[in-house]
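note to self: dont lose this again. the chain is below, predicted strucutre after it. 430 aa total, dont forget to put it in the shared folder this time
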Amino acid sequence: MEDRNTAMIVLLLLCVTAEMQVDGLSLDVCASCHPKATCDDKSDGSGKVCNCKYGFVGNGRTYCQDKDECQIGASKICGLHTDCHNTQGSYFCTCRSGFTPSNNMDVFTPNDGTHCQDIDECTVTGVCGEGGQCRNLEGSFDCSCILGYEVQNGAEPFHPHRDKASCKVVDCGRPEAAEDTVLLSVSGTTYGSAAMFVCEEGFVWRRGNNRSVCEADGLWRGGNMSCEEVNCGPPPAAPHSLRLWDQSSRPGSRAIYQCNSGYHNVGKGNVSKCNAAGEWERPPLLCKDIDECTVTGLCGEGGQCRNLEGSFDCRCILGYEVQNGAEPFHPHRDTASCKVVDCGRPEAAEDTVLLSVSGTTYGSVAMFVCEEGFVWRRGNNRSVCEADGLWRGGNMSCEEVNCGTPPSRPSLSQAVGPELQAGLQGDLSV
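---
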């Protein structure tokens, strides 16, 4: 029995010595570390291990490659309104146009609390030019014209650095004298200028105002004086119509009326006569608005017509968006039209792949599944193309399949028993 125990002890000592020799070879593991790795002590104190340096990923020995921190998205790693720039072993952040870092540095990393804040461009005097009024926006600004100025080479609001538009003072041009009147004086032609009128020779001022002012819409307004001969005078105006007249106010003279564009005559005629009593007959025409929206397809595919007084305009229905212009638009005057909303090809979230998609336009549906090696844990795997041109609804989250920690082997004390544990530990420490 004693010989058998002695043989088992010798066998165990040989096994321990073999393990020490193998472990002795592991002392050279630091020489095999990759240049981008460090040689560190194992957490359990059993030896050394090669770990890739910060900013690199790999096995620490055969390869350590740069970790692209920016791939998770600039807003996640750098914050809102930023761009992320990957470097070898690290990264840095910059603010997008219209924003400035809170630490006033061109580049930064967000670990010190730095964030991008809006620049108020409107604090710069004259940023919108003469007659321009600045409005600060999140990350930008735009301009509009103050009273007495109008936009040129574009539309409001506009951006002076991006658009050709600017503000110019309203110019009404030289005022035109009304029928049977002449211009007496004018202080100018721009906004706020005033013009004075008098009746032509042989006419007398009967009613109205002889002073006209250049208004913000570029028109002379307020001057409505009326001069008359000792006869019928000028024929009366009719709403929404053009008057044709040979300037004669003698009895028997005729005035012809034509409805303006967008109106048609539903009255009993279009001629007014100067009678013997020196008065014009009431114009018999009645100009009524034409409802252009009764014409099918007037606004094109996806367009919805809205009738206006003497005209009409168009807007896009749900699922369509305006192109080459803005709403509302006029298909005969503008280049704008409606096109169906297109969300483009849907992008798969992290660890997912696109299973199917019915299309890319409004109402289309895309289905996603997890990549191989991942399982669906939460969220919705169905995304829909919405009216704003974005895919919405798909928020599925996939997690990598993980079997957990492998089972451990028996400890040395369990293998040899408590009698030999102290002696073996002494030999191992040597």
